[in-house]
């Protein structure tokens, strides 16, 4: 049976006994039932009540306030309180109700009095319009008290369920709102990403057409000039050199585009072989020296720092792809460095890993762009940085190749001081 808690507040002991009798006599009492069964040999049917009342007793207003406080803490709150008005020497019933309602406005209150210091009107004026307050006169009518208690407890129950349901609904609404907010945030991020990607694509297309047109125009222009028969041998060699170097730029660009397309469609294969690392890096250094001359930057110092000496240290890698990554990083270093040095090489991290690096003393990269530059078509667009052309493909390709070879790439850089690109590489291929 459902247990509900009642509180009787009255300074008169006999009132408490009355309530006990009225509200507990219809409860099925097993012992009495059994005795009656034995005595009369008949089954006495006891009508079940909807509720079992747990009745507590207070004799003063202050005591009642403490009991209400405790009942709420015990999570077995009072549904109904029957309250006397005059309870000397303590505070009266109306003041007690006022105090209790300050914190617990859901408790049903019944003021019980033979006569009152307050008129009904005065009390209503004090509490304002409320459906939580009733007024009954002593002496009590048993049936009235029984029915009144049952109605008020039922009413309290319904109100409690309503509150719980409202809390549940509010929680649900809160959760849904949170979910929607999350979704909205996610959608906004996706939209921003799509917009950024779209913008990068447009910049890429513009750059690409510039990157193709420039060497093409040079090749066409100088070829036309070569047709001039009066041209000196010296000029002819010069023009042929221009045509050749612009042809190489075009070829590099086409290689980059094809390589990127292969990576994006997942068809780029890597072929591992075992080779001497120092030997491969020495070869690269030779090519880089030529690049320095070709770009009129022979004043830059070029350093190769190897983590081992001699040619015995061998690693498993795709020789050409590894060269491609280091060359890409070197080409950028060369492009963005006007004075100072470019250093490249590797250090041995442990028996399984090495770390390559390409370090320059060039213009540097803003901190915010350190991750972004590895994105497809990404280029630093700070006002402090002079646009050096390019397509924004080099680092994307490098990142993908490094990952295909089993490592990770990152950059440390300081604006105006230079950049160092690092990437890890396993010594052995599994
Ligand atoms: P590209 O050089 O063709 O534009 P990359 O993917 O190689 O494309 O480089 C992306 C961008 O990263 C460059 O445009 C440049 O803004 C920045 N960057 C790359 N390397 C360096 C470097 N060593 N120093 C300064 N900025 C660099």
What distinguishing features does this structure have?
rod-shaped, binds adenosine-5'-diphosphate, 430 residues, five-stranded mixed beta sheet, 51% helix, alpha/beta, five-stranded parallel beta sheet, 12 strands
What does this structure look like?
The structure is a single chain. The chain has ten helices and twelve strands. By secondary structure, the protein is of the alpha/beta class. Helix 3 packs parallel to helix 4 (about 95-105) and helix 8 packs parallel to helix 9 (about 320-335). The radius of gyration is 45 Å and the shape is rod-shaped. It starts with a strand and ends with a strand. Mean pLDDT is about 90; it is low at about 25-30 and about 40-45.
The average pLDDT score comes to 89
Order of helices and strands: EHHEHEHEHEHHEHEEHEEHEE
pLDDT < 50 runs, ≥5 residues:
26-30, 41-46
Instruction: Describe the strand arrangement of the main beta sheet, using strand numbers.
Output: 2-1-3-4-5
Percent range for β-strand residues:
15-25%
How many strands, what sense, and barrel or not for the largest sheet?
Answer: 5 strands, parallel
- Say which molecules are bound, naming each kind only once: adenosine-5'-diphosphate
Shape: rod-shaped
Tell me the number of strands. Answer: 12
Give the end-to-end Cα distance, rounded to a whole number of Å: 71 Å
Instruction: Evaluate the radius of gyration.
Output: 45 Å
Which class do the helix and strand fractions yield?
A: alpha/beta
H/I helix tally: 10
Q: Level of helix content?
A: 40-55%
């Amino acid at each position: 049976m459902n247990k509900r808690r009642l509180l009787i507040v009255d300074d008169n002991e006999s009132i408490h006994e009355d309530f006990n009798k009225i509200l507990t006599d219809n409860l099925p009492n097993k012992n009495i039932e059994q005795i009656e069964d034995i005595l009369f040999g008949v089954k006495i049917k006891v009508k079940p009540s909807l509720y079992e009342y747990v009745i507590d007793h207070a004799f003063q207003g202050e005591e009642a306030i403490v009991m209400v406080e405790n009942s709420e803490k015990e999570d077995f709150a009072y549904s109904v309180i029957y309250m006397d008005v005059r309870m000397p020497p303590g505070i009266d019933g109306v003041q007690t109700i006022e105090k209790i309602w300050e914190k617990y406005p859901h408790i049903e209150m019944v003021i019980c009095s033979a006569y009152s210091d307050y008129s009904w009107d005065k009390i209503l004026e004090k509490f304002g319009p409320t459906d939580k307050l009733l007024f009954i006169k002593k002496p009590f009518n048993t049936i009235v008290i029984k029915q009144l208690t049952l109605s008020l407890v039922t009413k309290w129950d319904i109100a409690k369920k309503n509150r719980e349901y409202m809390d549940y609904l509010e929680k649900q609404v809160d959760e849904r709102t949170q979910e929607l907010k999350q979704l909205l945030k996610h959608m906004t991020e996706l939209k921003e990403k799509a917009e950024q990607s779209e913008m990068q694509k447009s910049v890429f297309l513009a750059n690409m057409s510039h990157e193709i047109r420039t060497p093409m125009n040079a090749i066409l222009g100088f070829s036309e000039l070569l047709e001039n028969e009066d041209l000196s041998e010296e000029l002819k060699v010069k023009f042929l050199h221009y045509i050749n170097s612009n042809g190489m730029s075009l070829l590099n660009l086409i290689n980059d585009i094809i390589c990127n397309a292969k990576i994006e469609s997942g068809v780029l294969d890597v072929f591992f072989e075992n080779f001497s690392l120092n030997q491969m890096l020495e070869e690269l250094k030779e090519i880089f020296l030529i690049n320095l001359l070709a770009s009129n930057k022979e004043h830059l110092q070029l350093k190769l720092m190897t983590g081992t000496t001699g040619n015995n240290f061998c690693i498993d890698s795709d020789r050409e792809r590894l060269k491609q990554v280091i060359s890409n990083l070197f080409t950028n270093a060369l492009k963005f460095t006007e004075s100072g040095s470019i250093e490249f090489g590797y250090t041995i991290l442990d028996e399984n890993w090495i770390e390559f690096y390409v370090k320059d003393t060039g213009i540097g990269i803003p901190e915010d762009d350190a991750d972004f530059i590895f994105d497809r078509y990404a280029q630093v667009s700070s006002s402090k940085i002079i646009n050096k052309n390019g397509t924004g493909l080099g680092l994307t390709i490098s990142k993908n190749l490094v990952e295909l070879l089993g490592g990770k790439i990152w950059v440390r850089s300081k604006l105006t001081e230079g950049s160092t690109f690092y990437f890890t590489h396993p010594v052995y291929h599994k």
